[in-house]
Predict the structure.
Amino acid sequence: MPKFTRIADDTVQSSTKVSLSGPRSGVAKAIIAAAAIGGVLLAGASCTTNPYTGETQFAAYSDDQLSQLSAQAWQELKTETPTLSSGAQYQRVQRVWKRVAAATPKAGEAWDVQVFDSDQVNAFVMPGNRVGVYTGLLNIVENDDQLAAVLGHEVAHAIYRHANQRATRAAAASAAVQIGGSVLAGGSNGAVSADQVSALGSVAANLGVVLPYSRNAELEADLRGVDYMHGAGYDADAAVRLWEVMEAAGGQRTADFLSTHPNPQYRREQIRQYIQQKGY
Ligand SMILES: [Zn+2]
């Protein structure tokens, strides 16, 4: 039983973090739904090779599954928040994005890159090559190099399949909770029907947006992101300065990718050392 208790605590922690910093409502519902779907999806979990990095990863979802599951959440975001389709801010994001993306293992792939008209200082990536940048962030970055650091960070999350890692972790935790629940309920069968799975799927996909990534995932995105923006010809030092700017923005306007990290100085220092090591 201690094992179940520990995993359940993880779930509660995630839930708390999200409700404090997540941009969207209904997160608790998403986590409960994920608890129901988790056990079923884990049955199909397997080790797969990441085609972009060659790494072997344990994944509860295929990339196609996650992309399909994310489609509805992405649509909802685009419905809830106005998006730009022209103008200087729109052009700027598209221009810098194209350059950074072309310097990554995902070069040549189609992306849906949206600029959300909102003062949130934030950017995110969703499975299925979907990227969102808020105008609040555009108003704060000092130059295109800093924007390139943000976009490099986001594309790195996609390339390293961090959403899949996160969803797999959530599924594992919820499966354990479900099994624990069955045991407590006297071993009754907690089976979930196929209909329930598909209904819950889109909710579970919100995990691709609202749950924080692990610190390791954030650090990996930071460093690989620097590789990409440097490869695209942007100034790598801007990645260090970016986090100073983000930190100065602070308070309620802090980005999700800062909220998961208790020590921005440490993060900045890691990036600075990495740039030095690589000779960028
Ligand atoms: Zn991140």
